[in-house]
Amino acid sequence: MYMRYFSRVFSAMAGPRPVVLSGPSGAGKSTLLKKLMKEYDSVFGFSVSHTTRNPRPGEENGRDYHYVTREVMQAGIDNGDFIENAEFSGNMYGTSKAAVQDVQAKNLICILDIDMQGVRNIKRTDLNPIYISIQPPSLEVLEKRLRDRKTESEESLQRRLHAAKVEMEFSKEPGAFDVIIVNDVLEDSYGQLRNALLEEINKVKKINMSS
Ligand SMILES: Nc1ncnc2c1ncn2[C@@H]1O[C@H](COP(=O)(O)OP(=O)(O)OP(=O)(O)O)[C@@H](O)[C@H]1O
Ligand SMILES: Nc1nc2c(ncn2[C@@H]2O[C@H](COP(=O)(O)O)[C@@H](O)[C@H]2O)c(=O)[nH]1
């Protein structure tokens, strides 16, 4: 009930439509969204999620994630601070209301990088984002990318590959996503992502120019 009320407040603010990027771990979501935010730094803002997983080398608290303990995360969830949350590969993840609000307050397009549980939960709110699925060319390519990234233990990698099969099936459900991008050649995929968002990008640019 409260979640719906809060979401309605978001919609009523009538800023640009948020964007949800989802798809299997290792498909290339962060790679693509980093390119997008580099090219359009005054157009997009990243919704910084909370997670209980440890930071990877190069990741920064408050920029990539808010790294918290299970106790802190659970307390936030119980307090109603999150729009959605999920358990993924042995860790908790969630989008706080503040994370989205911070971006929307700047009139930027808010990008959420979330798993399929997050997509299902966001669909129950009035956030009304554009849903984009980033898919790998195949499970074999995905495994190679995840192994080459060298961020996962063998156990975590196997969990992520298992989840990936479910995520790949989910993307085929009618109406699950507005756009599906198979991330094979990075520049091609990036072009498709940019095209899919061009209308929203131009809206924000226009608003920024007139203010
Ligand atoms: N088109 C591509 N061709 C080759 N390698 C790619 C391509 N896109 C991404 N990669 C590489 O694949 C790996 C996984 O990409 P990335 O970390 O962006 O995936 P992700 O979907 O954000 O994963 P996670 O959900 O686990 O954060 C990275 O090492 C990245 O450099
Ligand atoms: N439901 C949510 N999923 C999230 C959130 N933040 C990230 N994610 C997804 O988790 C997996 C793993 O991410 P990683 O950084 O550990 O590789 C990936 O699919 C992300 O999209 C969130 O707030 N909610």
From TrEMBL:
Pfam families: Guanylate_kin. It is an enzyme of class 2 (transferase). Keywords: ATP-binding, Cytoplasm, Kinase, Nucleotide-binding, Transferase. GO terms for cellular component: cytosol; photoreceptor inner segment. GO terms for molecular function: ATP binding; GMP kinase activity. Its EC number is 2.7.4.8. It catalyses: GMP + ATP = GDP + ADP. Its main location: cytoplasm. CDD domains: GMPK (cd00071). It comes from the Eukaryota. Monomer. Interacts with RD3. This is Guanylate kinase.
